[in-house]
Amino acid sequence: MSQPVRAGSDQPLPTVRWDPFREIEDAWTRMGSLLGDVVGGERRPYGVLAGRTPGLDIEETDDAFIVELELPGVRSEDLSIDLRDNELTVSGEVREREARGTLRRQGRRTGRFEHAIAVPGEVNPDTTTASLDCGVLTLRLPKAHSSQPRHISISEPTSTETT
């Protein structure tokens, strides 16, 4: 059986098993590099692909907004949380773990990140609390007194004059 050869060469082509997943991964990496070159810079080393928004839930209760943000691999000492007007900014760093052996594949992102979250109402920043548990950052943002709902009673008309 003859081996396929490149045009103009006497050497047979190497026979490598085709792996469609490797090709998809390679294309994804090349696309990320191209986009990173265009819009990446230092803050976003993987370009647009690194800008993926993490899992986020915002729940509104009568007296507060509860924000839950998925931040796997982030330690509390590597986080910074700022609140200005109605914008919450969570920034930090995912540190690269120390490899104990030969790293064969790396799919986890490391480096600095920043997420800006618009809070849908006024917040009292003095009583805001934050906790990090199992990779989920939970922020309790109490509503400002002026934005808490109030019940307004309907009164009867004071007098109705007929002519």
Keywords:
3-stranded antiparallel β-sheet, alpha+beta, 4-stranded antiparallel β-sheet, elongated, 7 strands, 163 residues
Order of helices and strands: HEEEEEEE
- Percent helix, as a range, is 10-25%
How much is the average pLDDT?
A: 78
Please give the radius of gyration in angstroms.
27 Å
Query: Which regions have little confidence, pLDDT < 50, spanning 5+ residues?
Result: 41-51
- Total number of strands: 7
Distance between the termini: 112 Å
Largest sheet, in brief, is: 4 strands, antiparallel
Strand neighbour order, sheet with most strands: 1-2-7-6
Q: What's the helix count? A: 1
**What would you call the quaternary organization?**
single chain
Strand coverage percent: 25-35%
Content-based structural category:
alpha+beta
The best one-word shape is: elongated
Describe the fold and architecture.
With 163 residues, the chain is of the alpha+beta class. It has one helix spanning 20-39; strands at 56-60, 64-70, 79-84, 87-94, 111-118, 129-133, 136-142. The strands form two sheets. It has a four-stranded antiparallel β-sheet, with no helix packed on it. A three-stranded antiparallel β-sheet has the order 3-4-5, with no helix packed on it.
